[in-house]
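Database export, one record per block. Field names are fixed; values are copied verbatim from the stored entry.
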Amino acid sequence: TSSQAKININTAPAETLVALKISADQVADILRLRTDNPIEQKLVNEIEEAYPELKGKLTNQSQRFSIYGRVVMPSVTRWLRAEAGVASAGGGGRRVIQKNSLAIEFY
């Protein structure tokens, strides 16, 4: 069995949500709602009901994250891209970076 990657509604750019054919009004609502609090599974389910073609393609959680940054030093500026996988670590919702899942690039 292969697993299909899902799009995290809490982190997807507006352009990605529009490309999924979610209405512009709904995308604006999603962006507004997630500014203050993460989107809950209930809303993901409602979106999938309104857009049946998205059933099973959305999620409100991620196990992999990309981090982008700019490092400014006196004589040079570099860009940083890091990717990390995370996993739950005991109770309290604590999450840790998975061993061997961190990749960092400077360019």
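Remark 1: The chain has three helices and six strands.
Remark 2: Strands lie at 7-8, 58-59, 64-72, 77-88, 95-97, 103-106.
End of record.
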